[in-house]
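Any chance you could type out a protein's amino acid sequence plus the matching backbone structure tokens because I've never seen that pairing?

——
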Amino acid sequence: MSDNYPSIRRVFRFINRFQVLFWRLGLGRWMSSWPACLGTYMVITHYGRKSGKRYRTPLNFAKVNGEIYCVAGFGSDSDWYRNLQENPQVEIWHPDGWYVGAAEEVEVTEETLPILRNIMRNSGFVAKWMGLNAKTISDEDLMEACRDYRLIHLKRTAPRTGRSGPGDLVWIWPILLLMALLGKRRRRRG
């Protein structure tokens, strides 16, 4: 990994908090509305390998033949990847819906390289920021650049509903709208 590895990881941890919040506020689908620039995003809920604590991790993804794939860009050092090795059961917050699923690692080969390329293409600015142009890079150079990456297939096993998933904070919007209207009304009176 590069010398910037720890600082890049800190930046992603900071950004990830906002991405999860956007999903909880019901704005998750909007995050994937400009894939060429911002990328396509989903969130997976997974459980700590030691603590059992629930974690939510936003990830870029590609949907290939109806199946969802993502990568661990920091390789086997990624905490969420190591958690999935211990417990592959996940919840998937995807722009198409909310699912229960299981994660399985897929070897990167000549056959699966197009999936990896698709994920890199769908990562928007992230791949470019990491110095990777998925549209122009050769297969050999892509394999080399991503040799430490882990390709993950997220198998959806069932749809999910409930209050603890995407949009559980959407109730905030009517309150904010009401507060804005009341504030505007007071300014008119004043």
User: Anything to note?
Assistant: The helical segments are 5-24, 79-86, 113-121, 125-129, 139-145, 172-189.
